[in-house]
Each structure stands twice: as C-alpha cells, then as structure tokens.
Design brief:
alpha+beta; about 25% strand; 4 helices
C-alpha cells in the first residue's frame, strides 16, 4: 500500500494526514500522540475512527497540525483520519458516516460587529 493523504479542518485548525501500513504509531508534528495530546480524552477523539474499524494496529499515521486550539486540532485530525480510511477502503464510509466522523463541523467563531464590544454583546444602555 502506498501513502494515502487526507485533509481535515475544524474551526481554524487544519490537519494533513499521511497514512501507511504499519504498527499503529501516530506521530503529530514529529511528536508522539501522547506527547502532543496529553489528555486521554483528546487521544480517544483522535483514535475513534480507527477503533470503530478495528484498525488501530494496522496503520502508521503522520500528521501535520496547525492553527486552532487543542480541541479543534484533535477533531480536525479525527476527520482527516476518517477521510484517509475511506480512501483506503470505500466500504467503511457508511459506518464512519453513521458515527458522524465524515461530517466537517461547520461551526466557527462569529465575527465581531463594528460599534459593539463583541459579536453579539452590546455596550450597556444608559437612559440618562
């Protein structure tokens, strides 16, 4: 199997993933998964598509992550891994879609409006 690449985005985070056959090693920005995401919850989020397909020990994953915070980065990485797994085997798409791993979360920060302190917050009203 040759190297498969895929892209995942969430908020302002972008994940580029390169998947090859291997032993299950996940490397992010030249660091190990447990080093990059110390939180076990974020590690779980990243591994969700692999666990669903019982493919944790099958593939080595190298990822380049930039932008956003750690939660957005982990979810962008999850989407990228799911897309790469579909490129490898198209039959897995329905199972991944059912769990919601194939859908890019469109929610992003609302822009700040002029003449206001934040996106929806208004300055305090003064009657007199």
């Amino acid at each position: 199997m040759e190297m498969i690449n895929a892209l995942g985005r969430r908020k302002s985070a972008v994940a580029r993933v390169f998947v090859t056959e291997g032993t299950g090693k996940i490397t992010i920005n030249k660091r190990d998964l447990t080093e990059y995401f110390p939180s076990p919850i974020l590690q779980f989020v990243v591994k969700q598509p692999l666990q669903l397909l019982d493919a944790i020990e099958k593939y080595d994953i190298k990822a380049n992550l930039n932008g956003g915070g750690y939660t957005g980065q982990s979810q962008a990485l999850r989407l990228a891994i799911a897309r790469a797994l579909v490129k490898i085997n198209a039959d897995d798409k329905s199972a991944l879609r059912k769990e919601g791993f194939m859908t890019r979360d469109p929610r992003a920060v609302e822009r700040k409006k002029p003449g206001q302190p934040k996106a929806r917050r208004r300055f305090q009203f003064s009657k007199r």
